[in-house]
Amino acid sequence: MNFSRTLKHLFSTHWALRRAFPAAALATIEAAVREAEQGHNGQIRVVLEAALPAEALWHDQSARSRAIEVFSRLRVWDTEHNNGVLIYLLFADHVVEIVADRGIAARVPDEEWESVCRDMERAFKDRRFQAGLVSGIGAVAEHLAAHFPAREQGGNELPDKPLLL
Fold this sequence. Notes:
The chain is α/β, with parallel strands linked by helices. The chain has eight helices and four strands; from the N terminus they run αααβααββαααβ. The mean pLDDT is 92.
């Protein structure tokens, strides 16, 4: 267990997350997801987590591992074309992870997702939380549009509203 990381997580409260992402920012992010999904047939899910749960922190769970766990629990993988994408922010660590379902992961290299994550993290470092996330949503949407162009059929399979954990 990493002591300094544990302290960061203990002091990263939902209040701190709400201060970085107030209601207006969450509404803007939701609108960005909704708008982005008009340009492709993929699905984007945004999850913002203030800090790791105690057990995960005790086991020094990585942000990547937690993102995969959340991806599974929220069933982001359960879309018609296997093209769901999770954008996960672990606020205490200021780390972003993107987990893509097999339909899109087979077409977009991990390096591309990593680049999008690092761009968002740079914005967060400058305290541009909303702008960083909206930009990341746009970048994910570009990849989805390239491989899963919009079609008449298909609906919104995942909620557009960001989930706060």
